[in-house]
């Protein structure tokens, strides 16, 4: 008989560090103890944290980060139908967006999320190296349900969710459907594949078709001619107040806002990861910060993590687009294989060569009748669209 033991902790400091590190060794940096501690210690208003560590016959096999928060339906629903930067939305996309938002507006409440509100990807779950995901997914679902039964805060949640499950996690979908979870395809992660022979940003530019390369040069010239410098910040904490203000500018305009971190989070994350895995790329003029973009090295991936902008400056100088190129340069310096640009500004990222990678969030309402009704409505909504461009010479 196999002995199974589930440890639940309200702080990352309360888990067995060796066991957690063993399970997450080959997983995302966003489920590592330093990242989770930085987020926890920065104090996201209204967010509770639970960390689950599952052992079978004393061997750790699964680690899970669960974030618990009250979310209003208005924060889930987009304020307007997205155009993906390709012009006015079609009638079908308007109808789909309206139906989607109507369902999401009714989905407010307290939610327990296996995942990370502040990153794009399946960053709330890790299986130990060598563990078969097909066999392990039932353990993940059961662990989340055990949390609901045993934890007083989790018992107050009307929903449970697995956030940002990618297509390659095939084992997840079948298991989650069997346990009455429903899938909602969200906006995709825009991912740029970096070629092995690109050693610098100039190599990347050399691979572009002429019109895309010209557009990139114009972005660089526009920022330089306006007197701006682009370089990593050496001391993020020294600029924490300005960084947070610029981040808040972007956050306040976001169509979907699930949660907001505090001013201490990015400095704490910078200290936790160090320059080898964290860079804050900044656009400055005369020492004044007009925009930034954080990039995090996660194995072979570079994540364009969070951005902040002075919108008045960005209106006449291509600060944001210059930062996107700076992320590519940093990723090549780190010798990464991919750049994960995340959601939003899909067309701008497609013009850089990024392709959409679909992601799904799986949810279950604890009320069986409402769960059935919500799933039936979501099944009518077509997947979110995303633009595809062909900027490289070897593409059609």
Tell me what you see in this structure.
This protein has helices at residues 17-24, 33-42, 73-76, 91-105, 133-150, 170-178, 201-206, 210-225, 240-253, 265-273, 311-314, 319-333, 346-350, 368-378, and strands at residues 4-9, 48-56, 59-71, 109-114, 125-127, 159-165, 182-185, 189-193, 229-232, 278-285, 288-298, 301-309, 338-342, 355-357, 360-365. The protein has 396 residues and is α+β, with helices and mostly antiparallel strands. Strands 1, 2, 3, 4, 5, 6, 7 and 15 form an eight-stranded mixed β-sheet that branches. The protein has a seven-stranded mixed β-sheet with strand order 9-10-11-12-13-8-14. A hairpin with a 2-residue loop joins strand 2 (48-56) and strand 3. Helix 2 (33-42) packs antiparallel against helix 10 (265-273), helix 5 packs across helix 6 (170-178) and helix 8 (210-225) packs across helix 12 (319-333). The longest helix is centred in the middle third of the chain and has 18 residues, at 133-150. Mean pLDDT is 89; it is low at 79-90.
| Poorly predicted sequence stretches spanning 5 or more consecutive residues | 79-90
- How far is the N terminus from the C terminus? 58 Å
Tell me what portion of residues adopts beta-strand conformation.
25-35%
Main sheet record: 8 strands, mixed
Number of domains: 2
* Main structural class: alpha+beta
CATH class of the largest domain: Alpha Beta
User: What is the CA-atom radius of gyration, in angstroms?
Assistant: 21 Å
Number of helical segments?
14
